[in-house]
Amino acid sequence: MGKEDKLVDKLVSLFKGISDKDIDKAIKEAKNRLVVEAKKPKYEVLEKLFDSQIQVLWDRGCPDQIIGLLVAQKSSVLSKASKIAFENGHIPFIPVIPQTYRSFYDLMAMVRNGDKRGYVHLDPVVVTSITDKIKTPDKPYYIYDIEDGRRLVGKSPKEAEKILEEQPRSPLTAAEIIALCVHTNVLKHHYVQATGSRCSYDERDMVPDVVLLDIPMLDQCWVNSESNSWGSPSCGSRDL
């Protein structure tokens, strides 16, 4: 008797006395659960990702104290990520260093294009006006289930915000898009908008963004601006 025959025998025994309708529902639900389980990455893969991200921070001069705070979260980060079913192309997690621990000037210096370090192109007055519309921790933390913005390329930050609310997903803040640029090569594909943050320029409502013009730079765009060069990244959740 082959494997298929044995499986059929088990199913016949299991479903004996159950209506066809209930059998169909059970099989459909079982298939759905198998699909979800298949999207959950292996613990070893997540651990390797965590360690590689910490190594990137070491290599780019992140202070020991901040790295220590992130490393201390390893167990909880891996535990949380291992329970999430990730869509294809989504990044399981990324460490974020908030403004309370490093300035945007320091954070952008960790974004690289080859041997070229990122910088802040904004006027200092604009930099100090950057605020988050999203509640985020004051200490170094992690965001989870990140989509790097490809799905929203061509959408203005205002449009992207509405789309993400319906999904529901959370737009990334200025510190979070910088973290995305530190740990991925997203800028090689498109620029990224911090739809979860706002800044002010000449009394206009603006959104911080990171662009790549040979050198990565923190800049800004109008909240209603549309371009096929920009996208709004998002996450499924963040540590709070």
Task: Give a verbal description of the structure.
By secondary structure, the protein is α+β, with helices and mostly antiparallel strands. The protein folds into two domains: 3-37, no CATH class; 43-238, no CATH class. Helix content is 40%, strand content 22%. The protein has helices at residues 3-15, 20-38, 43-59, 64-71, 74-81, 104-108, 124-128, 157-166, 174-183, and strands spanning 91-96, 112-113, 116-117, 119-120, 131-132, 141-146, 170-171, 191-193, 197-201, 204-213, 215-222, 230-231, 234-235, 237-238. Strands 4, 5, 8, 9, 10, 11 and 12 form a seven-stranded mixed beta sheet that branches. Strand 10 and strand 11 form a beta hairpin. The chain is globular. The termini are far apart.
The class by helix and strand makeup works out as: alpha+beta
Average pLDDT, rounded to a whole number, is 88
Oligomer: single chain
Radius of gyration: 22 Å
Q: Spell out the helices and strands N to C.
A: HHHHHEHEEEHEEHEHEEEEEEE
Roughly how much helix do the residues carry, as a percent range?
Answer: 25-40%
Largest sheet: 7 strands, mixed
Are there runs of 5+ residues with pLDDT below 50, and where? 33-38
Termini Cα gap = 54 Å
Anisotropy-based shape: globular
SS field, number of helical segments: 9
Number-wise, the strands total 14
Number of separate structural domains: 2
Beta content: 15-25%
